[in-house]
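Backbone description:
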Amino acid sequence: MIWIKKILVLLICLIGFQTARADWVKHNANTLAWLHDIYFFNETRGLIAGSNGTLLETKDGGKSWTKRKNFTDDKLRQIYFSDDYSGWLLCERDIFNRGANSVSYLMKTSDGGESWEKVEFKNAGRSRITKIFFNQKGKGIAIGESGALFELQTDGTWEKSPSPIRYLLLDGIFSDDSHGAIVGAGGGVYFTEDAGANWNQANIFGDRSAKFNAVFFADRKNGWAVGAQGKIFQTVSGGKTWREQNSGVSKDLFDVFFLNTAEGWAVGGDGVILHTKTAGNVWNAENTDLKHKLEKIIFVGKKGFAVGFGGTILVYDENAKAERSVSKPILQKRN
């Protein structure tokens, strides 16, 4: 019995040792809400948006999160701020209780999120809006189901624009004031060179029927798109041509983020986190010991954050990792 107890103690120590050295560490969110998006104003203050009007806030760089008082029970899908004061929340009504209202609407703030004003998409009908994105000059575009496309007007309203696309659109990004891309279902990847006045279909080399969930550009030329069944595509031409990469996984991927043109991360279903330091030529899976869906990943300084289902918040701290490496004991060879 004594030797069994010694083995159990050793196993517990090993488990604790591995947990302490895990690169992605789960933090307590004090909520089981489905977390959809995360945004940081700077390295200390940030917000997380989720289901049932959940809005979490940190003022200590993500060490702790507090829940703000609800101003809606609707789903908060996305957070965007152009500066410390001006921002938007993309919201989604319960389809069974929305009545004659559109599925999606926006909440706007001009005081850093202390108060919010509702803004509707004009003539949105039943189309769900999935993403809003902006260039550096403040031009805003909203995309969604059936190729829905809206543009922010100078008077602060969002009006529907003609769209050459009929597929579901799920994500978009501007790489500078003029260039950008939008992605979605049915192998849909489109690029613009005139700030969204025109969208042109990109050339796809690989699975042309892939469903793309997210797109990210490290600069004007280099971008990546991720999607269903572990699909990852890369462009080095500003979005005109995309080539498939080998992710090594078959789980759906929901977001991608690159720190530069070489190092990047992707997240997805069943807690999947992929990491590359070779611009996606080789992707390696990180061990998270999670089975929850991860929806969003960002990096702020040396810290990475991933959020998802069940109140999941994962944190990657490059500084802490470096400290562990310095303090790691050196094993001496026996003579």
The first helix runs from residue 2 to 20. The helical segments are 2-20, 318-327.
